Amino acid sequence: MNVSEEAEEILEILWIAYEETNSAHLRLSQLRTMPELPVLRELIDAGVLTHAHGDDFVTLTEHGMHEARDAIRRHRLSERLLTDILSVKKDLIHETACQFEHHLHRGVDTNICTLLGHPQVCPHGKPIPPGRCCEEGREMVARAIAPLASLKPGEHGEVVYLHTTDPRRAQMLVTMGVAPGTEITLLSGYPSYLFQIGEGQFAVDRQVAMEIHVRLER
Fold first, then answer.
1. Per residue in 49-89, pLDDT tens?
2. Going by C-beta distance under 8 Å and a sequence separation of 6 or more, which residues neighbour residue 194?
3. Structural domain containing residue 186
4. Given 98, 115, 143, which residue is the final one in a domain?
5. Could you tell me if 124 and 161 lie in one domain?
6. What is the dihedral of CA 139, 143, 147, 149, to 10 degrees?
7. pTM
């Protein structure tokens, strides 16, 4: 679908509203940015929205759900790329991603997703909708970031993020010194993953090792 950058940004806002309400029927006045009429008309003409004249509600069509999901996926992958690979400062991530995502042609986002090791969340902890590459496990380019569990003994790199919803595990890892920016080396793998940080050596199970994401040093 070929729409303006403003229209894509509205699609992202609509997807965020959908995440919060689990409904494709959305009240315009509740959106954090009220779409201007020309942009609203552009989305209606593109077949992604329906809207009755004078009504405060819009509804994402089936096609619109797909397009909105893709738009937010490109945005959050852009944020992940800017954070993990380009080391853009956190206060600039959102604005820079808004500019960068519009240049991601279809297929490029798949390569970026594979490059990053199919991340599940953006730097703000919001879910990144999976693409076909995630579901099929295709490797189109060599990965730069991977879970600790997928490293080979002797491989090392820098911790870029922890993906865990368990605060106790997160606290345990922080206590071990596992934090973004920390150098980490895998010493041995399955069934117990032994790794080294500084002078300390620690062992975790596979589930925890899958939650530690590392930028590999080649």
1. 998 767 788 899 999 999 999 999 999 999 888 887 776 76
2. 186, 187, 188, 201, 202, 203
3. 145-216
4. 143
5. no
6. 70
7. 0.68
